[in-house]
Specification:
Helices cover about 20% and strands about 30% of the residues. It has a nine-stranded mixed β-sheet. The protein is globular.
Length: about 575
Amino acid sequence: MRKTKKTMGAVLALGLSAAVVAALVTPGATASAAGNTLVVDASSSIRPVTHVGAGGLYAVSSTTEPAPGLLTPLRLKQHTQPAPGVQQLGNGATVPSGDVLVTAPAFTRDGAQSYARMPDVYPDFPYRWISWADWTQKIDTMVKARVDATGTTNINGWELWNEPDGTWDTAKAGPFLDGWTRTYRQVKLQDTTTPIVGPSYSRYYPDLMRDFMARAKADGTLPDVVVWHELEDETYNTVDEHVADYRAIERSLGISPRPISINEYGSPSQVDTPSVAAHYIAQFERTGINDAERAYWYESGTVGGLVWNGAPTGSYWLYKWYGEMAGNMLAVTPSGDLDGFASYDSTRKIVNVALGGTFGDNAVQVRGLASFGAQAKVTVNYTPRSGRMTNVSAPTQISSTTVSIVDGAVTVPITNQDYLGAYQVVVTPAAGPTTSYQQVYEAENATVVNAQRLSSATASNGGYVGRIDGLGDGRSNSFVDFVVEVPTAGAYSLTTRYANGGAATSTQGLAYNGGAFSTVSYPTTGGWGRFADSAAAPLTLKAGYNVIRLAKGSPNYAGGSGFAEIDSITVRPR
């Protein structure tokens, strides 16, 4: 977190080309572009849908702020919340908020996880160092509180410090690299299970990152997740360069690849701009980022301006479109300042594209649609840059048409494009999706806790979740949380596609919407990678969004036996 220190011109903050800026700021200038075409290849998958760019810093301020259910449609992946005992008064707040143990039920309710930011136990920012004795006592208190909270799940990292390039008091505390090693070892005295997250520099510094990783390797204190921030106006389109440089550092030092978190992204003038968010997310998806969180410049509990007074803003709808994505993320080729991200859900035959970033008359070309038949239904939606304190009740539908598929492709015009807003293009067969609502949910698209996403040609969609091995406290349990949407309340059945290569039936716990656990049995399938359907389990779901957990150990569930891999679940009416 950094408090707002400056304001930027909204146009220049977008990092648009000089020609575009000139046209936008010159009185009487004609807003006409040469025309850009964003190309989406539905036959080329780059990774499973995991909503890597959906989450926020201080996104949740309490269990009721934002209101329950408001964030669930966004299928948020990852938050960063202050550690237990938070005293930070960020951005004009009068009382501390967001304690990760207090807010855990809220983000768990949405199927999300959270890192715990440790230095936010200090009340000031930049942090005011007292002494090593004081910091050690604070570490011990925070870690003990988390270890004692055995019923709390979905906390997946200790962030040891925040923006040390500007907040670490070298004069009083000594060099940061010494401080990292000392803090890391102090945390590990009580908690050897929860991952360590850092170094969390305020931007990507190649030299600082190289020195940090070399020292951490020598000391045996490498972070489990490597973090830096992308907060400068010009960096929304340079994430790929930073990732490439960091991966080169790993290779040169002989360090195994770490997951990368950008747990603060967007400058103050960018966070309210849907087109910039689309650029960021496109970069995160293409570069293989593990997770990224919207920055906290203003109020906590708003996910960086996605909600205001308990209702969506314009930017919310871009993340809602992102939340609707399922299956695999697709290869997308940007054109000029036009960029975006896309998915293909093969179970329903839906291509979902989100884009933004330029003006004038442009287009989206979607290729790889040969299996759709001769025609496709194409719907185009739009959401504006409303500002963080203006609600937008719904996106605007611009068009919905049936078009011919030519050589396996359709080209969709985006006329008079708003360079600040964002657009959604949804392409299905002419008759619509194969089911009226999503019924099959791939495990690799879900929230995976203490297990691993793996690939297999025998798995539907090419991926599954394995190594669901944990059976312990809230820090080491293994489970998968599925966010499932159904049209009406009532009785449903759950079928799990699984593999059990053992010699005996294995079991997992099944719970939904925070309710009691039942047991699901998985008879042997004769080998790992050989998938079969389980017997149907009854569910009673509410209309709208529900969170279903399949667990090998979880609070209030001490069972689970043997081992099973999860390919997907299917939820249908009974």
